[in-house]
Amino acid sequence: MLVVMNHLATQEQINYVVESIEKRGYTARTIPGGERVSIGILYNKGSVDASLFQALPGVKEVIPITRPYKQVSREFKPDNTIIRIGNLTIGGKNLIIMAGPCAIESEKQAMTIANHVASSGAHIFRGGAFKPRTSPYSFQGLGEKGLQILAKVRKETGMPVVTEVMDFQNFDLVEEYADIVQIGTRNMQNFSLLRRAGKAKKPILLKRGMAATIQEWLMAAEYILEEGNTQVILCERGVRTFVNHSRNTLDISAIPVVRKESHLPIIVDPSHAAGIRDQVEPLSLASVAAEAHGLMIEVHHAPDEALSDGAQSLYPDQFDILCKKIRAMHALFDK
Ligand code: PEP
Ligand code: MN
């Protein structure tokens, strides 16, 4: 249930509504909106009697929340969430491009790729320091050393950095270095990690689980918002299907569905969806056409030597051409 206040409602009237909600044993969550304040009613078991709040001073209307993901839903917050990182915004009309290698391998590798992607117009640098690998014998990432390299890339290029946190015990460390903390597909339902992300001061990039429905994904985001962090970016990265012509199947329809269901920004990672470099360009352009708020693309200057995901990493020249096409495609929708 959502109690929507009049746009002229006073702070006292808002406080009074909050008290009335809490007096009845529910939790009130105030959501500042562009025009007016709304107050969500949470932790109700069964339905709430709307007439209890409808007649209170300053109340415009009481709307039922029909979705299980309450705070994530558009019913709860009709206007888009805009996430600010320095001068950048994610979730508005602009398109954000995140790019970089799968894993940070060395300072030289990271700086080389960062300079390439920055000159092509990438806004945010990506790179894993803690890598979730299928095999324990594969390169696991440089750990804290990788985070230090990311900090250096940020200092030298001015690009904010996004990197993955794999477990609860390294959260503080990753949060200290990252501008955006990524939760990967394999951890989408790691609920203790999600709760910790909800206490973070940094925005969270939440990837869709490889076999998660959109409802499960939005419920995962709900954990983060429920703990107090409303800065969540959703990332579609393909789901596991029966096909073998690509690593995963990019679910383009997730973009309009998430945009309709939620106020949170949605970006697309075509690289992990494709697994094959040739498919990255068409999937990127399709995502922009479907009005994703951004893209996350793997790029490597020497993909044959990459320690992970070389086959899906674009060469810098390919990324440069792709950025030009992305901008042209986005201009068509930039009303
Ligand atoms: C990644 O972005 O480096 C990654 C491991 O992606 P995913 O969690 O989508 O597999
Ligand atoms: Mn990768």
Helix content bin: 25-40%
Work out the number of β strands. Answer: 14
Helical segment count: 11
Main β sheet profile:
8 strands, parallel, barrel
- Distance between the first and last residues' Cα: 33 Å
CATH topology of the largest domain: TIM Barrel
CATH architectural group of the largest domain: Alpha-Beta Barrel
Please state the CA-atom Rg, rounded to the nearest Å: 21 Å
Order of helices and strands: EHEEHEEEEHEHEHEHEHEHEHHEH
**Average pLDDT, all residues:** 96
**Which consecutive residue ranges, at least 5 long each, have pLDDT under 50?**
none
| Amount of beta strand | 15-25%
Give the full name of the CATH homologous superfamily of the largest domain.
Answer: Aldolase class I
The CATH first-level class of the largest domain comes to Alpha Beta
Shape: elongated
Helix and strand content put the structural class at alpha/beta
The hetero molecules present are: phosphoenolpyruvate, manganese (II) ion
Strand order of the largest sheet: 7-8-9-10-11-12-13-14
Q: In total, how many domains does the architecture comprise? A: 2
Descriptive account of the structure:
- This protein is an alpha/beta fold and 335 residues long.
- The protein is built from eleven helices and 14 strands.
- It folds into two domains: 62 residues, Alpha-Beta Plaits; 252 residues, TIM Barrel.
- Helix 3 packs parallel to helix 4, helix 3 packs parallel to helix 11 and helix 6 crosses helix 7.
- The radius of gyration is 21 Å and the shape is elongated.
- The mean pLDDT is 96.
- The structure holds phosphoenolpyruvate and manganese (II) ion.
- Manganese (II) ion (MN) binds next to loops.
